[in-house]
Amino acid sequence: MTQEFFDVVIVGAGLSGIGAAWHLQDKCPDKSYLILEGREAVGGTWDLFRYPGIRSDSDMYTLGYNFRPWKEGKAIADGPSILQYIRETASEADIDRNIRHQHRVTSAKWSSEDAAWTVAAQNTVTEEISTIRCNFLLMCCGYYNYEQGYLPEFKGHDRFRGETVHPQHWPEGYAYNGKQVVIIGSGATAVTLVPEMAKKAEHVVMLQRSPTYMATGPDTDWKARLLQWLLPEKTAYAITRWKNIQFQRWIYWQSQTAPQRIRKKLSKMARKELGKGVDFDKHFVPHYDPWDQRLCLVPNGDFFHAIRDGRASVVTDSITEFTENGIRLESGQELEADIIVTATGLDLCVLGDVQISVDDQPVDIAATFSYKSMMFSDVPNLVSTFGYINASWTLKADLTAEFSCRLLNHMTATGMRQCTPRLRDCDRDMAGKNWIDGFSSGYIQRKSHLLPKQGDQPPWVNTQNYVLDKKTIGKGALEDGFLQFTNPAR
Question: Are 78 and 55 in contact (CB under 8 A)?
Answer without folding.
Answer: yes
